[in-house]
Each structure stands twice: as C-alpha cells, then as structure tokens.
Amino acid sequence: MCTHDLDQISKILLIDKPKDWTSFDVVKKIRGLVKKKYNLQKIKVGHAGTLDPLATGLLVVCIGKKTKNIKNLELLEKEYVATMKLGCITDSFDGETSEKEHKTYANLSYGEIENVLLTFHGPMQQMPPIFSAIKVKGERLYKKARRGEKNIALKKRSITILDIKLESINLPLVKFTVKCSKGTYIRSLAHDIGQKLNCGAYLHELRRVSVGQYNVENAQSINDILDSL
C-alpha cells in the first residue's frame, strides 16, 4: 500500500459506543471493516480511553497514522453523565455483579447528598476497582477478578475531579455530571460517595459525553461506521 493510500485511510472516528460492547469490540469491528474495504492484511486501529462494557457514549478511535495521536488524546479531560444507586454495593462497583450489603438511605436529604458530592471536587488519591483493565503482571485485573482471585494488591492513583454537579435525585437513584482527568474511574467515585453517605452505592448507568474538544453529539453509531471509512 502506498503512503498516499495510508494517508487517506488514516483518521479519527468518534463512535457512540452501545451498551454491552467492550471498547475492544468496537476497535475489532472497525479494523475488520477497514481491512475489508481496502483489501488490507493489517492496519493499526486503537482507542483513546477505555469505556466499560456497561457504559455508553463517546469512544475516540484512531486508524492508521492517527494511532500516533492516542497518547496525547488519552491525556484530555473527560466528561460523564452518571447515575448511581444508593443503598447497596457490588464487587465490580457497577451492575456487572450482584448487589450486596443493603442499607437504608431514606434519611438522606438533597442537601446532604449534594454536599457529599462536592467534597470530591479537586485532586485526590483514588483506588481503582478490581474489575478494571489495569494490568498486573501482564494480565488485566478484571480477568483475575472474574476468576475469583483474592488478595490482589491495588495501588491508589492520583486523579483530579475538575467539576462535579448533582443533576437529579429519584431515590435510590442519584444522577450527576462529572469532568475529570485521565485515569479516573467513575465506578470508584460512585462507590466512594456511597461510603461517605454511609449507605453504599454503585454505578447504575454511565455515559461519556466528551473527550477534550470531541463531543458525543458528533459521534456516529456502530451501524454507520462504514459510511465514514
């Protein structure tokens, strides 16, 4: 393939990832479509920041020469709309695993919940969830977690919550928006908020709406990818 062809194929795609697709599923789908359309044996395709399978929203995908941009794109701040469920926790910090440790939340007021949310504004040390894509000794943590491995050593990471805002409360569901730095786990944030509220919480729904200057409003669905390749 000549350089001109690679320049033509190389691009950044904004994808609105559907629920139950992994970020790798999206990359694999796009790689397959590109290889078939241009009759290629191989082509580099990657994404600039994992979205959990249960999350939806903006996934920035780079093709060909644009994969060189991934490291810089990963540094961009991200914005999410999140809904957490109060009154229990899960091992995965989201809906992938079963609810447990149910507690009452009926005494919590709007003001109390909002005040606790606001305490998470700014730089902090955050413990990532065990069900995560972080690699330990070459293996993704979620693989160890799904096998039921115990005593996995996790290290806190430096992250920054740039903005957090309570949007609505329909107990046991609490909806909020959050802007954050690279490496932030909204699942961990929901879990930590629940701990501070003394009732527990897990991430019930998550949608990424922006990555830096890129917005999900400009993203396309999985079914429409072929049109832009």
Commentary on this structure:
The structure is a single chain. The protein has 229 residues and is α+β, with helices and mostly antiparallel strands. It has two domains: 89 residues, Pseudouridine synthase, CATH 3.30.2350; 134 residues, Pseudouridine synthase (2-Layer Sandwich), CATH 3.30.2350. It is 24% helix and 31% strand. Strand 6 and strand 7 form a beta hairpin. The model has no long low-confidence stretch (mean pLDDT 92).
Jot down its keywords.
229 residues; alpha+beta; Pseudouridine synthase; 2 domains; two-stranded antiparallel ribbon; 11 strands
Would you tell me which CATH topology of the largest domain applies?
A: Pseudouridine synthase
State Rg: 19 Å
Helical fraction equals: 10-25%
Overall mean pLDDT stands at: 92
Shape: globular
| Structural class based on helices, strands and sheet pairing | alpha+beta
Q: Topology, pairings included?
A:
Layout: H1 3-9, E1 11-17, H2 23-38, E2 45-47, E3 56-63, H3 70-74, E4 78-86, H4 110-118, E5 122-126, E6 135-136, E7 139-140, H5 141-146, E8 157-170, E9 173-180, H6 186-196, E10 201-211, E11 214-215
Parallel strand pairs: 3-10
Antiparallel strand pairs: 1-3, 2-3, 4-9, 4-10, 5-8, 6-7, 8-9, 10-11
